[in-house]
Structures are given as structure tokens and as C-alpha cells.
Amino acid sequence: MKKEAFFWVTISCGVMIMAFILLPLIQMVISPSMEKLYTTIKDKDVFRSIWLSIYTSGLAAIISFVIGTPFAYLLARKDFFGKNFVESIIDIPIVIPHPVVGIAILSVTGKDYWIGQILHELGIRIMGSTVGIVTVLVFVGMPFYINTAREGFKSISPRLENISRSLGASMISTFFRITFPLAWRSMIVGMIMCCARAISEFGAVVIVAYHPMIAPVLIYERFESYGLSYSQPVAVWLILVCLVLFLILRIISIPQKRRA
Amino acid sequence: MKNTGLRMTFVSLLVFLFIAFAQASEEPSGKIIIFHAGSLSIPFERMEKEFEARYPNVDIIHEASGSRRAARKISDLKKPCDIMASADYTVIDELLIPEYADWNIRFASNRLVLCYTEKSRYVNEINAKNWYEILIKKGVIWGHSDPNADPCGYRSLMVLRLAEIYYKKPGLYQRLTSSRPKENIRPKSVELVALLQTGHMDYAFEYLSVAIQHGLKFIELPNEINLSDYHLDNFYKQAKVKVSGKRPGEFIWKMGKSCTYGITLIKNSPNRKAATSFLEYLLDKNAGLKILGEMGQPPFIPARVPTEEMKARLPEELKGLVEVK
Amino acid sequence: MINPVRKLTRGIKPRVRKIWNNPVASHRVFSNGINIENLRVEFPKFCLQDINLSIGKGEFFVLLGPNGAGKTVLLEAIAGLIPIKRGRIFIGGLEVTHLPPEKRGIGIVYQDYALFPHLTVLENIKYGLHFHNIEKTEARKRLNQLLDQLNLRPIIKRLPTNLSGGELQRVALARALMVKPSVLLLDEPLSALDPNFRGEMQVELKGLHQNINVTFLMVTHDFSEALSLATRVAVINQGRIEQVGEVTDIFQRPRSPFVAEFVGMKNVFKVKFNGTKALLSDWELELGRGVEDSQGYIAIRPEDIVISKERFSSSMQNSFKGIVSKVLNQGFYYEIHIRIEKIIFKALITKMALFELGLTEGVPIYLSFKTTAIHIF
Fold first, then answer.
1. Is the pTM of the predicted complex or chain greater than 0.95?
2. Closest residue in A to C173 (Cα–Cα)
């Protein structure tokens, strides 16, 4: 008898969670009519917004990949004094409230601060620019890439790399011939996670750049100005974009799980 | 013996509670929701503190935004609200009366200035005569708030139009607006202050009160263009700006007028009693209005309503605090 | 015929002459295989210290020790995969201490073989060719040799995930030997195999070594492997080398209690010496020879202990009465624990003998051993 009750508890929790996640989203997606969705995406502002969101998060993912990969590799392979501390620092962007991130980046890139002065000399503009948006997105998305890539590298036995070196390969050759072909899946998964995180960022971006408008800012602005019915269709399009990303993530990571 | 003792304690407890409750129900209590203009943030914060200190059972919840957006929150989004204070009283007239409000009290004035900091470009050259030439210069980042959301936004545009007329430089408005890309617009004028302070923006149009409250440097503009003097309303009328209407796709033409702040009680206010108490406090020349004056925002003492008829619609407690003007 | 070297060195001082004449016994001679001088490796919780080894070219050298003794650390230090604190390493006569692994001319075979899972067997074997300038015909010749020698042709197109333990090991060997290393490092290569299969693989490994001119350095914890494969052995424990020498030498003349136990001497006791006698707890053992030290260790092999129902009166000077405390079935023989007062001796006995003597726990029994069976150190 006891076993039965436990079983039902687990099932009902599962159902509640599924409903909690799916109901609001399904409601949102089926609310606007197909015609409305079509006119919405044809609206130049909406299209530009969504494209900007995709483009900036993609860029953030690529930058995370380029800069984060060597560091993730180091963290996977080497133990050093203060490593725990360093790994905690990498996770800081995840726990900081988003508006705080935006304010911090704005402060450090302003003419008040030496970094801001250098940027000003170089003619690079952060506030209200795509560069600023990408900066914010890299800040919030990088930890996701680094953590995933690091675990991916860890899962490859260092012995394989040792053997490669004993056979005459330099560290770089080993990385490209052995480590990378075995770890590329984790790296893609990491990039997609970074991308997904970046696309949904609002609070940090809106402080640094109101215009150009990324999709979440546009949705919020429309909601504030004109209400639900005007903002919902844009939200639906953004949800669809995120779902596509998510699907790709699942397709790529499933073979990995099966192998493990 | 024990029984009586217990009963006595119980009864006295009840009496005490009853008195306390009665006491409490006389004083204002509960939540008061205020939507107000961004430029009123700092004076209102001080007023809230004083009011809550006087009546500890009150909790004031405020949302600052552009005044037009605030009105939309009430009319379109049907967000619950007790008091709405707008940087432009006409917003209340146009978007809230008669469905959501009955009356409109004008309680303070303001004027526009051009703010900057010591980090701004050309900070050593700019003055009241050449400001519009500096703004057009390449590399100067300047902005104002969103005209569709915030009165300060469309007022800034009016300043530019009036400048063209006043300085007799045709095409100046066009040249000025094209040197200010969309990225330099923010929904709420107060956000521009942060951008000035961090050095991301060189110049911004703001209310005098905000400049003073935040310790910014500013250029005083000629009265003919800074919307300060209601005597010059006829001159101001020449500036016309298009802003979004009630529904997407609709537009309203705004005519230049001196900056006049308005405040009202929303019709289905959740906490009418406490809200009225707060208005009493605000409109008191030794309380709320005094704070406004101290913070660089000249109040109307006493506050004004346009007609006797509107005065009659006011709650009893407020009738004594306004005049018809 | 006089050893020509001896003739030449007659003039040199006797000590040096001894070293020249007997290079194998001393480990301080420079050879063309592997030379390690004063090596020290430091880890947070472990240290390899004062390692001095000289391994001759073409030798099959075994590094023997329990788990955690530092065998793999030493191997990886020689390979250049971990940083060393102090010391020098020479391979093939050249100093490699500061060279990266890819330039040391070593091959590695790990316990889990570590084949590249995303490459086929053939691609695995040919991997090293990318980084060595070997002429095409020469490379092909070598490849064919290895494929035939190790019987790998049937599986060259397969991926490592589908191979058996033995196949994996052979591919790992072929891959390492393809680039003609001067030294092959093997880290417990047989531990992952089935016990039945191990014997077969030992033979194969030995055969492979004899056919090619490569120095083998193998690491293991299994003494019997060392016995069958090695020319010389070094016993390592807790980061230090305890003894180096030929296999039989270590087997018969262990120099410390640890080595003794490791090579299967189960009766190791601490004793006080007095002339030709050793004092073990309360009673005396006759050693048959004089010992200078006042205290030390003795060890007796279980197989050297004779068990009888009555006291042996013959040549065995050490004969004592005890009680059987335990009988352990070891498969083909029995291990018997005999308690004499506080000391427990371990002896071996066949099943037959066990029944004949009617031995079970508690039965009184005599044990005896020759004085020559007592090893002193």
C-alpha cells in the first residue's frame, strides 16, 4: 500500500510541474490569430528586433567560444592554487541580478572610468549600441559556455592526450586532432546554452541600450504602452525562435547521452 | 477566584483591541498606490517618508514612469492605482478624464534646461547663446526622453521648435533632430541622468528640478523657449509635436504650453480614504508643496483648478486647499 | 679466457674495477637505455624521492610495487608528462630532462590502452606518422611488419569500441612501436585482462620484446609477472626505490621487510641477534652463522617450513611445537597458520598432506626449518 502512495505522489508532482510550464506557454501561443502573427512578423520593427536578438546572442556565443575554450580547457586539465575561487568567480554573472549587471557595465564603460576613456578614444560606443548589447550578453552567457565546455573536456581522458604527445604531437596538434574531435559536441551544447541565455536577457540590456531594441525590450515596451494584445504576437515569435534553438540543443546532445 | 481573574483579563483585552482598532480606523492605513512622473521621483520619495512617519500604518507604493505611459497603465492595462501625478496636466485631461478621473489639480510648475557634467564635450565652450551649435557638432552625444511616453520628451522637442523660431534659424529643428539618433532616447527622462553621470551622454534636456536634485550643471535657456512662463503661452503655442494616440496607429498633436504638473485621484481607487489624506498632505503649503519648492520645483500656492464646477467635484478635505484660476 | 675489460682495468683502483666489470649489479653506471639521476617529483600528497636507476638498452625492466607506490608517477615523469622538482633523465644516452614528451622518443601503453575512440585501428596505428619524417616505403614496411607480428590485419577497419581486451592491447603496442621509440613504457598492461588470458599475453609480450631492439620499462604490482618477463626489477614503495637487481636476486635475497613480504616471504619477524642466534619473542632460533648487528629482521619462505606430527630430529636445527590456528584453502594447496605462543608462522601444505596429518584448527603440530632457510636483513 505504501508503495502505491509514493508512486502517486511522484506522478502528481510531475504532472503539476508539466502543467506549470506548459499551460502559460500554450495559452500564449494559441492566443493570437494566425493572421495577427503574420502581420506582426511583417512589421519592420518586430522583424528587426527579433533579428537583432538572434544576431547578438549568436555573436555572444561565438565570442564565448573563442575566448572561453582555452580557459575551459585549462580548468579541466590543471589544478592550481585558488582554482575553487576562480571557478566561483566564473559563476558570479549567473547569480547577480540582471539590472545590476547592466548598471555595472554602464559604469565601467563610462568616461568616469579608465576603460571608458580608452573606449571613447577608440571611438567605440557602448551605450545604445549593438556593441554594448553584445558586451552585456557575453557577460551573462559566458559562464554557461565555460562550464559546459569544461565538463566536456574533463570527460576526455588525459591519457589520450598523453599518448598523442608521446607519439610526437605538440600540445596544439593534440588539441585539434584528439581533444577537439572528441569534445565538439559539448562545445556546441555550451554555445547553444550561452545563446539561449543571451536571447532571453532583458534587465541588463535595457539599462545599457534601450535602442536598438532587442525582442524582449520591444515586447516590454509594447506591453507598457498598449497592452497585452499588442505585445503577445511578438512574444509568440520569440518563443518559437527559442524553441527552435532548444530543439537543436536536444538533437545534438542526445547521442552524447546515449554513448555515456 | 481564578475564573473571575481570567474573565477580567479577557474582557480588558477585548476592550483594548476594540479601542486600538477604532483608533486605527480613524488614521489612514493600508497601501496607497501612486503613479507619478519620473521628474517627481525625488520630491515624492521625501514626501512618502514624511507621510509614512506620520502614519506608520500606511505603505506607499509608487511607480515612476513617463506620465503618458502612467496614464496608459490605468486606462489600457487597468492597473490598480489611487493617485496619478503627471508632469503635464493635459495628460490627465486627455487620457483619464472622464472615465478614470473626475478632476485635475494643477500643483506645480517647471522648466526645461540643458544639463551636462564636467565630463561633457565642449564643456568649456558651451553657453546660453551657442548651445544649439554645440549640439549639432560631430561626436557630441545628446538626447531627451521618448515623446510618446514622457511629457519631458515632447517638451524637449517643443524647445527645439521654439529655438528655431526664436533664434530665427530655419531648418534648425531638422538639423538638431537628425544629430540625435534613436539610441539616445530613453523612455523616462530621469534615466538620462545616469547616462550623463557615467559619461555616456554629453547633454540632455531635463527639468530644472531634476537638474538641481541630481546636482547636474545646466544651461538656462531663454524664457521664450523653456516653457517656464504661462504668460508666454501664446508664443509656446507655435511649437507642435506629434505623439502617439490612445491606440497604435493613432496620433495626437501636442501644442506647446508652459510646464504645469497635475494630480488626480483615480475613480475606482482601492484606498480612497488614505489617498485623500495623502493629497491633503501634499497640497499643504507647509508640507508637500514646501518640499517641492525646496527641491527646485516651484509649486502653485495654493494649487489650482480651472473651474468652479471642477472644484465642486473635489473631495471635501481638498476643497480648502485649491483656488480657481 | 681473461675478460678483456678486466685486463684493461687491472691498473685502476679495485672499487672502480668492480663497477666496470659488473655493470649490472651497480645502478650508477650510465647506459644507453634509460638513466635517472636523483629524481624528485612533488605532489600535494605524495613524493617521489631520490630515484636513481640505470636501465640497459634493450632490457625488459620491471618496476614492481603496490598500488600508490608511485609507479605510474615515475613512468609519467620519464615520459615528460608531469613536471619534476629535481633530477635528470636520460634516454638513449641523451638528456631529455627539459624536453617535451613529443621529443623524447618514447612510446606508452596504458592499462586501459587509451586508443583514440574516434579513429579506426589503422588510423590509430598510423597516428604517429603525422609527426615523424619517415619515408613512405619504410613506413609501409614497418606497418606490415607490425600488423603481421601482432596479428592485426583482420581488424584494421574497426573502431576501438568493438574490440576485445587482447585486441586493444595489441593495437596499443603497434601504435606505440610504429614510430620506433627507443623506450616503451608499459603501465600495468596486463592488469585489465582476464586472468586466464594473462599467461598467453605474457608470452606474446616477451616474444615481441625479443624480436625488436627496444627498451621495455613495465610497471606492475604482480610479482609473478615480474618473474616471468623481467631481466631486472626495481621494487618501489612510497616513492622510494627499495631494491634493484636481477629477479632471482630479489626473490632470494630481499633486503628489507617490505621487499620480502612483497616477493612472497610471509614469515617476516623483527629479532635481536646474539652471536649465531636470533631472539624471537621469548625463544631462540639457530642461524648457523654469525651476525654483526644487534637487531634486525629475519624472513622464512612458507614453502621452506616442514610440518610434522613429531619433532624432526635430523638436520633441521630449528624445530618447534605449535598449534594450528587457521587452515586456508588456496586452491591447489593450503596455507596453514601455526601459532607458537605469540608468533604465527605461515606454511604451505598439499591437500594430501593435510588429510594425512589430520590437520584442523587446534591440533598440535611441529614445524621445522633449516638454518639456511632463514634470510637475514
1. no
2. A163
